[in-house]
Amino acid sequence: MRAVASKAERAVTKRVLARFVAPLLAIAAGGRGRSRSRARAACAVLGLWFVFAQPARAQPTGAELLGSSNFADIQRGVEAVAGSGDPHALPILAAMQEGRLYARGDRSLAAKSSDGSYTDPLTGAAIANPGAVKPVRLNNNVRRALDAALGALRLFSPDPGTRQIAAEAIFKGRDPAALPALNRAIGEEKEPGVNRTMEQARASALLLKNDASDTDKLAAIATLRDRGDIDARAMLATLATGQPPAVTAAVAEAVNAIDLHLRLWSWLQNAYYGLSLGSVLLLAAAGLAITFGVMGVINMAHGELLMIGAYATYLVQNAIRAHAPLLSGASLLIAVPVAFVVAGAVGIAIERLMIRYLYGRPLETLLATFGLSLVLQQGVRSIFGPTNLSVTTPDWMSGAIGLGGLSLTANRLCIILFAIAVFAALQAALRYTSLGLRMRAVTQNRRMASAMGIRTPWIDAMTFGLGSGVAGMAGVALSQIDNVSPNLGQGYIIDSFMVVVFGGVGNLWGTAVGALTLGVLNKFLEPVAGAVLGKIVVLIAIILFIQRRPRGLFPTKGRFVEA
Amino acid sequence: MSRLAATLTIACVLGSALLLIVLNQATPPGSAAHVSTYAVSLAGKYLSYAMLALAVDLVWGFAGILSLGHAAFFALGGYAMGMYLMRQIGTRGVYANPDLPDFMVFLNWHELPWYWWGFNWFPVAVLAALLVPGILALVFGWLAFRSRVTGVYLSIITQALTYALLLAFFRNDMGFGGNNGLTDFKDMLGGISLQSDATRCGLLLATAILLSAAFLLTRAMVLSRYGKVLVAVRDAESRTRFLGYRPERYKLVAWVVSAMIASIGGALYVPQVGIINPGEFAPANSIEAVIWVAIGGRGTLSGAILGAVLVNFGKTLFTGALPELWLFALGGLFIAVTLFLPNGIIGLLPRRKDAAVDEPEQPPVLTTSEAAAREVTS
User: Fold this and answer.
1) CB A221 within 8 A of CB A251
2) CA B328 and chain centroid, separation
3) CA–CA gap between residue B21 and residue B34 (Å, rounded)
4) Residue A275 contacts residue A516 (beta carbons within 8 Å)
5) Cα–Cα distance between B233 and B253 in angstroms, integer?
6) Nearest chain A Cα distance for residue B73, angstroms
7) How many Cβ contacts (< 8 angstroms) between chains A and B?
8) Residues B200-252 pLDDT 10s
9) Closest approach of chain B CAs to the CA of A454, in angstroms?
């Protein structure tokens, strides 16, 4: 009795602690969680053994009842075993649920393992000669009791993950019958995160219990409110009728609080989607910011350079799969420089063979490069076929990371990081390399640069090659989120130009800000207006914006005559 | 443009149309001289495209505005005509609904949206075909020219305009048939079947006559004093402004007229092709129209017509025989014409002295340094 009372006290203290300190602890514990929890689990097992082993042996009826042929007896047996707190209760009942539990002639139990041998589930000792055994009988009532008992027992599993899952299951299942076990588990629980879930499970079950006191209900409502997700909201919403006014008011308030909370998270989620779209736009437009922004060349074949990057990824992956399967995890990383070189080489060829004859004639450049884009598309279609090719996603880019109410998909996260890296590298290349210096010199004052001994035609080719190469690298990223088909580039060309023009031609930072602004704007409009209408609104907004600021967000400084 | 060239152009347009009609109507099917109705419709389609080309040439060749969104006006005109033809179907649709076009019944709409009212009258459709693109062009052009959006920037926002319209017309909620567009037309003008040979010939003749009229109108415009200022704006906008002209007004007039001509082309296109769908808004279509003009000869009105007919004739031949080569050919044309044939096919003809005014002077070749004293990054 004394032990029980002291345990109840401890439970209360811990409940209080859990509500206020647990979130902090969960964060602080972080990386050290694993070793601590293992030690803790060992202590818990020992403790349970000493507390409950004695009574379980003194009244061994629970296990014996399982061998009965009467279903009511078996059900009582399940409940008795589950309530015994014996550390072997879980394996016994688990074996029973899997149909591996047998009763021997003397009503003792034998668990059959997968290789056909029997062990005594109470001691774990092997049974050499089980004699005549018959399976422990199950019907639906017994199964139901078994499920509930196992759910409750798993709350005491030494593995915190299992306990967490069990608590979550009770939270969703809302079975008031699980309350006693839950109360005990909360008393035992030392892992703050698991403890919190258990509290929430208790709250959800308690709210279904008709004879619960108002104080308990209010506490439960507060717990659910702290949980603040859509499940908790649904549970509270069902509680609206037939309750005392204080409870009803608390429910209404809690639902409002959760709604606000959810809205905040969905706002953050939208911001993340916007960031993700913005980084894709930035990648697509970064190359164009060089060729169009810095050089002033209208390259309508820019989209096809993205496409070439994506096809280069496909070829690299195929080559790696055929010749070096060990590297397949890194195939995307290998594809990045390859795509840069391939697209860059194509870009240099375009510049040397075509664009250099058209400098100073932007509209003609536009038409010629549009023609080139048709040729490149059809060329790729003739070689690889018109269908989508499959580019694999490496393991480290799949899955999602949960962060509070956010779900951050790994591939989008990688693309955001990649966009940042590409942008930083591009800035660095322009600012700190000698080639970058020359590029800036040539674009600022061609004649002066030429007089200083810079080979301007060569610099033109290199600049265009750099922009094209960046487009190729972007293609690697796009291959992960879009269909690798000959039409890949067409979907991005208008957006890319919009980004560059919106941000301000000739300004890389403007391109970055433009891309992020358009991405975030798009994603915030989507839930309100729908995807297509949102996009239309953005396009019209850009058209109107250009009327107001014909030189974009960040116009280049200095005066120059309009051509 | 000499009077001779103008007469020749009109003679060619009307003459070839009449010739095709006579060969279709007067000769028995199967004779060597017989021209199929399909070919008559095809010719009508080319001439509708020629109107689009003429419109593009007016703004690009004479006002220096490279529009990459002119197909939007063409498609709007087409939709106006398509709406009229839809209403003419009446109860002969699949759902036999007297009040609603089929696609609206399919979408569970219960009443006609207000913007469909009146489209069972031909004059309303014609008015809409003229006014809707005209007003759109007026608003868009007024905003753009007033704030001096020029050159590439203007090209890009015209492309954004047609792209936005493309997306909008793809939506079912817009009430224009969504992805499928408007089709399954039966007849027009009080029961004239669209499928009959005579109607096809009549449509071709109407297209040829309206094309000639548009040609004469644009010719009168560019030869007038207004046209001279327009060319001055094209070649040196700032200088013209400093001389006391208001370039934005000159450009706006040309822009709106051009949009209306394109729209009439679209309205004539739809009954001859039998369908209009949002694909007509695709930015690539607008750019293709620009290349017709470039191939024919930018800044020559006859060249625009010639280019449109020739390129589309080539397209018909290619897509029939070697479909996968068509994009190579078209793309190659783009590149070759801009690199080697800046004045188009008309530019190959011996030049007369008094024709000089029509030729767009190549803008002085600005090197990148002169075009912009730009900083790479701020």
Assistant:
1) yes
2) 23
3) 10
4) yes
5) 13
6) 17
7) 205
8) 899 999 999 999 999 999 999 999 999 999 999 999 998 999 999 999 999 99
9) 14
